[in-house]
Amino acid sequence: MRSLVLLLSLVLSSAVLAQHSQDLDVALNPFVKPESGTSTTLQLTLRNRTAVAIDDVDVDVYLTAPRATLSATHHPAWPPTQWSCANITTQHVRCRADIGAGPGQFIPLMLTIDPVVEGRFGLIAQATWKVGSTTLTSEPDNVTLLLPRMVNVTSAADAGPGTLRAAIETLNDACTRDQVPCWVRFAIDEVIRPVTPLPVITAPDFEIDGRPGVELDGSLLTAGHGLDIRGEGPAVISNLAIGGFPWDG
Question: How many CA atoms lie less than 13 Å away from 180 in the CB half-sphere?
Answer without folding.
Answer: 22
